[in-house]
């Protein structure tokens, strides 16, 4: 998956949800002041520019690949003229499937990031039909299965990826999460610490810190949990799940005002994102006398 394209798709989906909410008569639209409208306008302008740049870069890459194809044809003609006939070279169908798979991978990641797990799974399974053995697609599928609570299926997917590429950091980070959810704390910490030490993939390292914080929270080691959640937020301030989990850590270590401040930060960072909404809902619940759940 092209990370830049995935980010553009994620931003597009987020903005589309915001605008749909504002346009739907059946749903009371959130109050949007002039400053918020201007921010949305600038986000759309920025997204258009980024998308335009991505299209131009993709076209330039496509033209370069066409040039390579022409060069290859020339080499083939020259070679065929001087050598006996041999079996035909592989067709381009595999490459077409790979290009099709990348579209479904990006769609799967976009759906996953928005919490739309069923559609994410559908897109990623389609990607694997088009590109069997794709580490990227199978890692994202394992991630989706993990969040669906299908831990055995996730374990199978992630171990398959690591069997092909033991250095795949994102698969290992998610494997650590799965083993924690299966009650294997020591193995979970080992897998996640391996990702943190290697620091070879920014996203994997970010989530490894988040998951380590969740493991230590589960073990009631709140100082360590806070340390890893804060490290995750330093690496990815937009990882709103980090604010949610940091707030839970504070709450259950009897630091209620800091917990409220953490959830407020998450809610204000992006009130339309899934984790921003969860932070806001939890704040509202506590205001009405509720409390966060200890278990996920």
Automatic annotation (TrEMBL):
Pfam families: TPR_16, TPR_8. Transmembrane segments: none annotated. One of its GO terms (cellular component) is extracellular exosome. InterPro entries: CFAP70, TPR-like_helical_dom_sf, TPR_rpt. The keyword Lyase does not apply. TPR repeats lie at residues 101-134, 206-239. Keywords: Repeat, TPR repeat. This is Tetratricopeptide repeat protein. It comes from Gemmatimonas aurantiaca.
């Amino acid at each position: 998956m092209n990370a830049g394209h995935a980010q553009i798709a994620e931003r597009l989906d987020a903005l589309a949800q915001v605008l749909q909410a504002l346009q739907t008569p059946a749903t009371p639209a959130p109050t949007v002041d002039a400053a918020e409208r201007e921010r949305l306008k600038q986000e759309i302008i920025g997204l258009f520019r980024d998308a335009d740049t991505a299209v131009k870069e993709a076209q330039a890459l496509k033209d370069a690949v066409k040039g390579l194809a022409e060069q290859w044809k020339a080499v083939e003609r020259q070679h065929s003229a001087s050598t006996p006939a041999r079996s035909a070279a592989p067709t381009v169908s595999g490459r077409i499937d790979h290009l099709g798979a990348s579209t479904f991978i990006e769609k799967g990641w976009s759906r996953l990031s928005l919490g739309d797990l069923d559609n994410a799974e559908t897109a990623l399974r389609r990607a694997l039909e088009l590109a069997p053995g794709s580490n990227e697609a199978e890692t994202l599928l394992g991630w989706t299965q993990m969040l669906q609570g299908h831990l055995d299926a996730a374990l199978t997917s992630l171990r398959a990826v690591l069997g092909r590429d033991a250095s795949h950091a994102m698969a290992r980070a998610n494997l650590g999460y799965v083993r924690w959810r299966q009650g294997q704390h020591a193995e979970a910490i080992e897998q996640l610490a391996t990702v943190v030490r290697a620091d070879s993939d920014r996203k994997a390292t970010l989530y490894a810190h988040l998951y380590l914080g969740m493991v230590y929270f589960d073990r009631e080691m709140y100082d360590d949990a806070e340390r890893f959640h804060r490290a995750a937020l330093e690496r990815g301030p937009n990882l709103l799940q980090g604010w949610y989990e940091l707030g839970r850590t504070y709450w259950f270590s009897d630091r209620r005002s800091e917990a409220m401040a953490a959830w407020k930060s998450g809610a204000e960072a992006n009130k339309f994102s899934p984790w921003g909404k969860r932070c806001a809902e939890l704040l509202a619940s506590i205001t009405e006398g509720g409390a966060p759940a200890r278990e996920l």
